[in-house]
Amino acid sequence: AQSVTQLDSQVPVFEEAPVELRCNYSSSVSVYLFWYVQYPNQGLQLLLKYLSGSTLVKGINGFEAEFNKSQTSFHLRKPSVHISDTAEYFCAVSDPSSGTYKYIFGTGTRLKVLA
Amino acid sequence: DSGVTQTPKHLITATGQRVTLRCSPRSGDLSVYWYQQSLDQGLQFLIQYYNGEERAKGNILERFSAQQFPDLHSELNLSSLELGDSALYFCASSADRMNTEAFFGQGTRLTVV
User: Fold this and answer.
1) Would the CA dihedral through A6, A107, B68, B94 be positive or negative?
2) CA distance B68 to chain A (A)
3) B90 in A contact zone (CB under 8 Å)
4) Are A37 and A105 in contact (CB under 8 A)?
């Protein structure tokens, strides 16, 4: 069964600094990969997704992620963060060959942007 | 606004009771997924419906059930509630069967006292 590992539970970073949030998934079979953001007391909002094609995926709010099949990783990056990026970030994987298309989520990374 | 509506936003109930959570997917979306978010277990998939039919089950307790109606809204029924059922319950909808983009509602926060 698929699983997702987000090694960093919390990442503090100063405003305007770059950030990378790490995500590894368990299987090298064909997968769909997603990053979602959750602001306090809100639902999950899609930042970006990888379905196929180019391994560098650009999303909203200046975020991007790179799909690395050999390392089974899908790390999220932003070159310069803002205070408003403070939120919880979830990586998710879906296995299109499973027939269910459910998302398996990581445990989340809490990004804290410091002034 | 994702277009997915969940009601109620908050629910406080006693142990042993039964509650119903409601989800209205985005207009035209046929797939509905239910997830539970708790501090100890994170975001867990519960159940999926597609055009009125159950398609997949995840870690859903036997005390929980769901259905999707002809107008595509879905309800999650939780019965014989226990303290450990306190969590945020999310509904998500997707336009395509392969769930290439899921839109999440704002969730229902259930507190069992």
Assistant:
1) negative
2) 16
3) yes
4) no
- Phi, psi dihedral angles at A62 (to 5 degrees): 80, 5
Length of chain A: 115
| Cβ contacts of B92 on chain A, cutoff 8 Å | 44
How would you write the pLDDT of chain A (115 residues) with one tens digit per residue? 789 999 999 999 999 999 999 999 997 678 999 999 999 888 999 999 999 989 999 999 999 999 999 999 999 999 999 999 999 999 999 988 877 788 999 999 999 999 9
Partnered with residue A58 across adjacent β-strands are A64
C-alpha radius of gyration, chain A, whole number:
14
What is the C-alpha to C-alpha distance for residues A29 and A43, in angstroms, rounded to an integer?
29
What's the CA gap between A93 and A102, in Å, rounded? 8
CB-based contact B106 A42, cutoff 8 Å: yes
Measured between alpha carbons, how far is B23 from B39 in angstroms, rounded to an integer? 22
